[in-house]
């Protein structure tokens, strides 16, 4: 089954304790991205990757890191989490249309992160 | 002006009603447009892509107006199961940018 797998689904952590949220896709997609979703703010892009070893900042990259060493994996790293990073996180992947740009995404099921 | 703007609603409609949502976008170079559906705190799922000529999928019709920079979604014969948040999504710019901008979503509640 074609899917994007995120882990963990739920995470409660303390301020400053490094954590990694994993994301893996089995569709051989070039494009992967991380979003956070907060009430009243919608989905905001954190980082994205056009292909292996190619990553770029989205709209809200502060406090996050990513890597793309393999095509299928795109982990999100919070080196020193803070309470304002409490949010619902989604990983997504997509192929690239011939005409340019990403076509419809496939999203992971989300990670609900609470930083206390 | 917001990059992608939607009326958050909620739209409360009876079963069987026809309801329409509009979404405006600010980047005239945008090439690709989509409607996504999101059930409460679950992942967004692609409802339909929006093509220049407009497209229909069962009870759902999507249209694009490039001149006025808006897209629309029409739902006919609403079902209780259509209750969800509908996200307007615009590919930002031309070329291989791969960046999607999401509207905040429009909430639809279909009542019996």
General description of the model:
The complex is a heterodimer of chains A (116) and B (112). Chain A is mainly beta and 116 residues long. Chain A is built from no helices and eleven strands. In chain A, strands 2, 4, 5, 6, 9, 10 and 11 form a seven-stranded mixed sheet that branches. In chain A, 37% of the residues are buried. Chain B has strands spanning 4-6, 11-14, 19-25, 33-38, 45-50, 55-57, 60-65, 70-75, 84-91, 100-102, 106-111. Chain B is mainly β. Helices cover 0% and strands 52% of the residues of chain B. Chain B contains no helices and eleven strands. Classes of the chains: A mainly beta (116), B mainly beta (112).
Largest interface: A-B, 30 and 24 residues
Q: Report helical residue fraction of chain A.
A: under 10%
SSE order of chain A: EEEEEEEEEEE
Overall spatial form of chain A: globular
The Rg value of chain B, from CA coordinates, equals: 14 Å
Q: Helix tally of chain A? A: 0
How many beta-strand elements of chain B?
A: 11
Question: How many individual helices of chain B?
Answer: 0
Number of strands of chain A: 11
Low-confidence stretches of chain B: none
């Amino acid at each position: 089954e074609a899917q994007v797998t995120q882990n963990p689904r739920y995470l409660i952590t303390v301020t400053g304790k490094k954590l990694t949220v994993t994301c893996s896709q089995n569709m051989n997609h070039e494009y992967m991205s991380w979003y956070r979703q907060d009430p009243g703010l919608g989905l905001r892009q954190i980082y994205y990757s056009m292909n292996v070893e190619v990553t770029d900042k989205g709209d809200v990259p502060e406090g996050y890191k990513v890597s793309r060493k393999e095509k299928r994996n795109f982990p999100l790293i919070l080196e020193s989490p803070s309470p304002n990073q409490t949010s619902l996180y989604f990983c997504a992947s997509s192929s690239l249309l011939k005409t340019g740009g990403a076509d419809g995404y496939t999203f992971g099921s989300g990670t609900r992160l609470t930083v206390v | 002006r917001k990059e992608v703007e939607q009326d958050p609603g909620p739209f409360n409609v009876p079963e069987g009603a026809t309801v329409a949502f509009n979404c405006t976008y600010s980047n005239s170079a945008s090439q690709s447009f989509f409607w996504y559906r999101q059930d409460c705190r679950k992942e967004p799922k692609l409802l339909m892509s929006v093509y220049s000529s407009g497209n229909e999928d069962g009870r759902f019709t999507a249209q694009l107006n490039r001149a006025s920079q808006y897209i629309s979604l029409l739902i006919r014969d609403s079902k209780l199961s259509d209750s969800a948040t509908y996200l307007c999504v615009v590919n930002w710019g031309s070329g291989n940018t791969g960046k999607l901008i999401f509207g905040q979503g429009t909430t639809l509640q279909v009542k019996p």
